[in-house]
Structures are given as structure tokens and as C-alpha cells.
Fold this sequence. Notes:
outer membrane lipoprotein receptor (LolB), chain A; alpha+beta; about 25% helix; eleven-stranded antiparallel sheet
Amino acid sequence: MFIKVLLLYLSVVGQIFSDENTLNQISTRLVKSLIVQGDFKQEKKLKMLNKPLISTGKFTYHQHKGAIWKTLTPVSTLVLMNESTLLTEQGEQAIPEAFANVFKAMLSGDFKNLESHFFVMATNHETSWQIELKPKDELLQRIISTLTLTGDTELRSLDIAEVGGNSTFISFDKTTHSSQLSLEQEGDFEPLQP
């Protein structure tokens, strides 16, 4: 019996170290820069609707300032986010730390804080990778079942499976890197500045 328990323990510990090593391998594959920007397409599937709700837009992530999520179709909206605040046209709200860590890791390739908030399973293939996250946080567990990130040298998609059966799939395209924000992006970030 002791040997079975020991083997089970070693396989779990081996998987944890393997995932940590795999996260490091994935992180080194990703293109790193101060600013990541591109296009997104979001498909929200609700159990009560036959067709998904589709929106498209542009995103910008700045390592020090946060993120701009600009939906262009079907309705134009602007969402600003940093490590503690989500700012929409409806007002400001606090962001759970676990969610802020996912967003930062997702767009910067800095995965080291994920394991404090999520159970992590990672796979790294020759031309692609996948990271599956299951929340440890009780609040997030009531909302999100799993988050699945996929990519190559860039993040290509995020799949959010919600506890109630709804889901959101976001694909990222035309990703570019920069060391400087445009004047428009600087203006968009302004409301997040202290």
C-alpha cells in the first residue's frame, strides 16, 4: 500500500514539476515586448441562444499601464484594465487578483503567478502549446470552470468555460509588438492614470 501511495505522490509531484518546466518552455517561445497589440474576435455562446454573440475589435497590452480592449463591432465599446481596476463606460470596478494575473500572463508570457491562483496543466508541442487553468479561488470557481490558452510564438486563443454552461472563445490575430504607444492609445490609457 505504501508503495502505491508513494508512486501516486511521485507521479503528481512529477506532473507539477513537469508543468512548471513546460510553462517556462512556453514562456521562452513567446515574443516579448513592452507593448503587444492586435485584433480579436470574440464568440460568446449562451445556453439560451442558438447562435453565438460575435464581436470584433482591437486590443493593446502595455506591461506597465495595463490593457485596452476596444470592441468595434457590433457595438463600439472601450474597456480599460490594469492590475487592480476595470474601467468601462458604466464605471469603475475592482478586479479579482486571480483574473488580473491571467490577463497579464496571457499577454506578456509571464506565467509565474498563475500557479498561486490556478491548477495548471500545460503541454508544449513543436509548433503549438496549450495551458489549461482551473481556478483555486472559491469566487472564481463559482463562475469559471476552465480557461484554456493556446498559441505558438503568440497567444492565439482563449477559451473560457463557465460553470453554468456558457462559454466564450476569443481568437487573437494580426498581433504586433512595439516599444511605443500611439497618441490614441496614450489617450485611451489616460483614465487609468493615478
